[in-house]
Design goal:
The protein is mostly helical. 89% of the residues lie in helices and 0% in strands. The chain is rod-shaped and about 140 Å long.
């Protein structure tokens, strides 16, 4: 085989290897594009739901105000409970006094 034949053979082998690598690369690119399209489709489907979730959870930031108001309300209910227990005790004493003085 002549030098020119060896060079031609090397070029043919290099071109065949490059062709095989190109086919593999094109296949990978096609799969990547299909995956990107699927991601875009799923994004378009879930975006309205995400907007709804944001709208539904917007009130969570107001919970700090509710918690801040709950402390004084709890204190007030404790005072009301204490006052009603005092009233109940006095009413029970009055009831006991009335029932003790009632004719049997």
């Amino acid at each position: 085989m002549t030098t020119e034949g060896v060079v031609a053979l090397i070029w043919i082998m290099a071109l065949l290897i490059a062709l095989a690598l190109t086919v593999v690369a094109v296949g990978m690119i096609v799969r990547i594009i299909n995956a990107a399209r699927e991601v875009n489709r799923l994004l378009n489907e879930t975006l309205p739901s995400a907007v709804g979730i944001v709208g539904n959870t917007a009130a969570i930031k107001e919970l700090d105000a509710v918690v801040a108001a709950a402390g004084p309300l709890l204190e007030c209910t404790a005072r009301i409970k204490s006052a009603t227990e005092g009233i109940r005790a006095k009413v029970n004493r009055v009831g006991a006094m009335l029932s003790a003085g009632a004719p049997t």
